[in-house]
């Protein structure tokens, strides 16, 4: 394994995760970004440039940098928003497609 290739892979992965999370934070569709990144990571795994654990750790780090909370901490907030909308009868919340609400 070439160290320079591995470093380049992680630099690009970090930027791609940042792009995904920034788009999500701005309520923009990040589907294309996510799919591109999934393919990129899969290629990195096949070429032995990374392990799944390393990628997961990098993703957690970038998520923390962008949102200020871990991925696990952010998910319950979304569930709380949905429950609050149901409780208050705020059906506008459900007008947005679910795949957009859960980004």
Automatic annotation (TrEMBL):
Write down what this protein is called: Uncharacterized protein
What species is this protein from? Rheinheimera muenzenbergensis
Task: Tell me the organism's taxonomic lineage.
Answer: Bacteria, Pseudomonadati, Pseudomonadota, Gammaproteobacteria, Chromatiales
